[in-house]
Protein 1
Amino acid sequence: MIRVCAVILIFLVSISLLAPLLAPEPPSALDLDVRLSPPSQRHLLGTDELGRDILSRLLFGGRISFLVSIAVVSFSLLIGLLLGLICGYRGGWIDEIFMRLADIVLAFPGILMAIGIIAVLGPGLQNVVLALVFIGWVSYARLVRGLVLKFREFEFVTASRSLGASSGRVVFRHILPNVIPAIIVQTSFGLAAAMLAESSLSFLGLGVQPPQPSWGNMLSDGKNHLLDAPYLTIFPGLAIFVAVLAFHLLGDSLRDQLDPHLR
């Protein structure tokens, strides 16, 4: 299953990166003479209400979706990992401050908080990433903190401290390697969640702004043509479904492989 999911994701990322070479037309090229054309030899996936090629927009939209997902997870992981290691190993007032902040963030539905942040900052790709990072670091920080609290009481950590090892050496040499497997699994789920969140915000008009394509705003553009041109929503919806499902199945498979209790 890991190989199948990896192949699917590599394929999706590859065609998105190669969109300038693979796209038959520019994603924003208008041709009102062929508006709402069904899939044909000229337009393999049809055209939208402005005559733009769906295949081209789907390929370029994938670049946005994967870019946002990777950016959000990278920054969230970096912040959450550092805070989780510090809070879990040091404890004290640092732990209290950041964990109470995490509780405040978790007290609100994530998508509603993201909408509120973007409403203040304004719509746009950078603000979407900022809003999702503000929400996303919490899950990594709490996961890492919990694991550090467990591992810091193990005998090999106690022995290392008794031999005079510094806190940095104990954390990065002995504790962090045991935390990485859980982080890898969480990262896979985080990529799926970030992609869904970006698509939702773009669907609501708060994410990527037209004419720049994304899978979310493609769904929004097609919602008024569900009966006369259903392919406008089928293809971007299918792309989101396949990518998110692949990330989730990859995470489940990695968890089974990396967790010795599930083998």
Protein 2
Amino acid sequence: MECLDTGGPLRAEVLNGGSFWRLVLDAPKGNILDASMVGALRRMFDKAAETPDLKGIIIEGEGDHFSFGASVEEHLPEQVGDMLAGFHGMFRSALACAVPLLAVVRGQCLGGGLEVAAFCHRVFAAPDARLGQPEIVLGVFAPVASLILTERAGRSRAEDLCISGRIVDAQEALAAGIIDEVHEDPGAAALAYARHNLLPRSASSLRFAVRAVRQEFSERFFERIAALEKLYLEELMATHDAREGLQAFLEKRKPVWRNS
């Protein structure tokens, strides 16, 4: 099997003679979306934009889990500005490449991991999948999820997940529209979908279709993610509780909230 160099802990496999790529988050057990992983994903989305024969990208996690989410250490005040710029830049590149994205979710898919999966056009999950946005438990919020979960699941369900931080199972996620299909082997199901529905199509026309169906969302995303990034950096990170929640997680203790 041909593989591409990603420059990070991301494995890129070429399928069907180059019609598809499989991008595997290859840092088990948690497949943490740290700067190295995010940078590798962004490079592959940028490369996809310059690969005219590419018809789809399948994204999955190595091992038992999709991803535990972004690096908590990189959320600390001295790193969070660079972290958010890189993380949000990855989603900008994903939108710009306009290639159909299919997510394969097994086990835990949390925080930034759920943001990546939900951003895909089709999400295939295993029965053991557990999905959630637990950022609020750490005293922070999820900018990308605040936008994409509203698109996928509607405002009420997005608010529930982002405000409560609770974890849902595959069946609840399916009913909510957070995922699209549940299979014992979601990887095989995603590849079958790609081969049946994408392979016979024009790669060029697929990109126009992706751009068209996401045009309104893309415009709103580019505008709103900048505003949410500013809210996060200039207001949230100025509070005691945001810093306390992150530090308490790293120190494996319960946070002591001041409610300010």
Protein 3
Amino acid sequence: MILISYGTRPEWIKVKPLVEYFNGKIPFRLLFTGQHKDIIDETKHEVICLDISNGANRLDSIVSSIMNKDSVFDGIKSVIVQGDTTSAFSVALAAFHRRIKIIHLEAGLRTYDFDNPYPEEGNRQLIARLADIHLCPTETNSNNLLSENVKGQIYVVGNTVLDNLLGLDTEYGDEVIVTMHRRENHKIMPQWFREIEKLAEAYPQYNFILPIHPNPNVIKYKNLLSKVKVIEPLGYNEFIHRLAKSRMIITDSGGIQEESSFLKKKVIVCRKETERVEVLGKFSFLCEKPEDLSEMFAVLSEDYVPVGDCPYGNGRAAKKIFDVIKHEI
């Protein structure tokens, strides 16, 4: 029996193709670790649900909510954790304590800067030291792990997020999609929002759309935006359809860089570092400071159609991962 763990919407989006492909082929159990409760009902399968206790430190609370849950791991021979959340690390650590095999989905991404992104960079490096099977999106990720001399088997399988995008047609409309939520941007969120608002005023031919992130450190600044249309968070299917029809994207997200490259969109990445280095200069363009945003947007808006192939696979990663697991376990 395999335990598939997730707790956030981005995690669910990337494990969902596995759940769908494994169904009827490999016995599995789902574990929801408690962060984004609105996604609990998005599967027909039975889900073990954990609650996160309210402590002084949110990250500590996530870890403590997962430790000492023996019943969760009864009969489990291996665990799949996705990406770089604190809950993914915690489930991996709990599995390690029980000598359960750990499979890391989306392994090997690196900035080698623990502050950017924080705490994700630390989490994924910690998971890498524990994992028995590393499922890497690209050869770059695989090479990172080889250079770190990690234990376990390393496979390049592509990124499962692309499995959700097969059949979508790309267009270039007048919407500029904006998403902002990263912890390292919380202190300078007002500066980012002011610069994005300036863009919306300077380029009235575009509709700047920001689905607001529910984090209080983001929501409290939404009144800085008037030319930018602030909307409620979108369901994933609606979001990717709008992404497919957008002109460009401004974001501090990681996963959107992958989806956008598959959909042939250019993305301004509002961060100091990115772990998706494969798309830099082709699909993604790093904007380290808010004051640089205007100049970068001016250049990219004149040349908004990228050239090149998506480096994250062909949208059939779940099949490759099934074959790896069938062989290894």
Protein 4
Amino acid sequence: MRSIMKGALALSVAAAALTTPASANHSWGDYHWARTSNPFTVKLGDNVDSKWDSYLVTTSSDWSASSVLDTVIVPGGTKPRNCRATSGRVEVCNAAYGNTGWLGIASISITNGNHITSGTVKNNDTYFNTAQYNTPAWRNLVMCQEVGHTFGLGHQDENFSNPNLNTCMDYTNNPESNQHPNQHDYDMLVSIYSHLDSTTTVGQSVSKWGFAGTGFGPGETGLSPKSWGRPIAFLRDGRPHTYARLDGPGRITVTHVFWVPGMGPKDSHVDE
């Protein structure tokens, strides 16, 4: 019972952090990579195919314009279908993940309350191979936003129908002007990384263990909500967009999901 209560408390803390309005302060909770100096470099593991390579390059270049962090694309360390996490870096993947109802998901492993130790990004070709989403604008938007989440950024706006804010961290039904970060995103990163840590989680190897009953390690998830844990933040229409899963003492995997506009958990038909 005590362990259950501790788990519930940890998830409640995560929920409180992630339901903060994102317009003025759009940090994702207080989540950040621990590091001892700025700028620091996050490795992006390239597990994407030729259809996605140029979008990963664009996203890496865009986020490297930040004054506090750089990114570098390195050979992938996982298989795209599973997209397993690698400690100290972000693995970026694409595959035809099926009729999941989502365009992309980003997951981060959190230790010590707020330190990111790994991240994964999945882009779902089941939808991106259709005429509606197989466009540079949609690919840039989703790639940029999901990678941005792995640095600790949330959304600037979560209403698909509002006018575009000209940032990839904005939900929209028309992504043409929302393909890249804007100055508010860069300013937010400066705020998130304004302090230094005594240790670093960037590029560091952290011991991993599977979450009981799922077989997934920290920062790893499957394709459907049942592997993501408990929904803790919701869109205005009631769809959950953030989930948290207790992985062990002091460790949580947090997942953001970019639903296909108009779809949600009920539209997921993936068995794991």
